[in-house]
Structure formats: structure tokens, C-alpha cells
């Protein structure tokens, strides 16, 4: 009994070629996916750092208006708090003694990945 041309299946070479092509595509796509995921997590942490900068600016203005003189970096960090929570991230503030600038570090809490940091310059 002879099969018609339309009833035949794929050959072994066609199946292997398809698997090789899928393997090459997967070897390129999967690392790129992880890179993009890591980048987005770090950008989310950068948003938390930006929120920390905004909080420092607001506290600076408030303390300046209340005391009629610009606050120092140490008193500013105490007003904001050494650590504070912003959504899924914890911000920590520390002063650079030589320049009176403030470093802001953001790290995920509760298993949230992503870290970033920024520098807030004390107005002169």
C-alpha cells in the first residue's frame, strides 16, 4: 500500500533542523530576557532613590523656613530618618562628612530584587 504525498510526515532531518533553530533562538532570547528583567528592577530602585531626593528637598525647604538658616546634612538626615520605606524599597541615607552631601541607597525589601544609589547635593 502506497501513501499519497500529502499523507507523509516530516523527515528526521527536518525535525532536527527545526529543533536546532529553536535552540539557537532560545539561547539568544533567554539571557536577553534576564538582562531586561534585571535592568527594570534596578530602574524601579532608581525611582525609589528619586523619591528619597524629593523627601530630602522637602525637608531642606521646611527646615530652612522654620529656622531661617540652611540646615546641615546631619540634621537633614535626622529629619528624614536614617532609613525609610518607599513602596517595595528601603532607603538608607548617609552623609559624606568632607562635602556635606548625602548618599541615598535603595534596596528591595521582602525578596524584591533591585538596588540603586544616588547622591543628593546640599545647596551651598
Secondary structure: elements and pairs:
Elements: H1 12-67, H2 73-80, E1 83-86, E2 89-96, E3 101-108, E4 115-120
Antiparallel strand pairs: 1-2, 2-3, 3-4
Write a compact overview of the structure shown.
This protein is an alpha+beta fold.
- Record field, number of beta strands: 4
Global shape: rod-shaped
- Secondary-structure class: alpha+beta
Q: What is the succession of H and E elements?
A: HHEEEE
Measured by DSSP, the beta-strand proportion falls in 15-25%
Give the end-to-end Cα distance, rounded to a whole number of Å: 94 Å
Number of helices: 2
Largest sheet: 4 strands, antiparallel
Poorly predicted regions are: none
| Helical amount | 40-55%
Mean pLDDT: 90
For the biggest β-sheet, the strand order reads 1-2-3-4
Radius of gyration: 27 Å
Please characterize this protein's 3D structure.
By secondary structure, the chain is α+β, with helices and mostly antiparallel strands. It has one domain. The protein is built from two helices and four strands, in the order H-H-E-E-E-E. It has a four-stranded antiparallel beta sheet with strand order 1-2-3-4. Strand 2 and strand 3 (101-108) form a beta hairpin. The relative contact order is 0.15.
Keywords:
124 residues; alpha+beta; four-stranded antiparallel sheet; 4 strands; 21% strand
Amino acid at each position: 500500500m502506497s501513501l499519497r504525498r500529502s499523507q507523509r510526515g516530516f523527515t528526521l532531518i527536518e525535525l532536527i533542523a527545526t529543533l536546532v533553530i529553536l535552540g539557537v533562538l532560545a539561547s539568544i532570547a533567554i539571557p536577553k530576557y534576564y538582562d531586561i528583567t534585571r535592568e527594570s528592577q534596578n530602574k524601579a530602585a532608581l525611582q525609589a532613590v528619586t523619591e528619597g531626593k524629593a523627601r530630602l528637598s522637602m525637608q531642606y525647604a521646611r527646615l530652612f523656613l522654620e529656622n531661617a538658616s540652611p540646615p546641615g546634612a546631619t540634621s537633614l538626615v535626622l529629619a528624614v530618618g536614617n532609613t525609610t520605606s518607599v513602596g517595595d524599597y528601603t532607603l538608607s541615607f548617609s552623609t559624606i562628612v568632607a562635602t556635606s552631601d548625602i548618599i541615598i541607597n535603595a534596596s528591595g525589601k521582602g525578596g524584591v530584587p533591585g538596588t540603586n544609589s544616588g547622591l543628593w547635593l546640599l545647596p551651598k
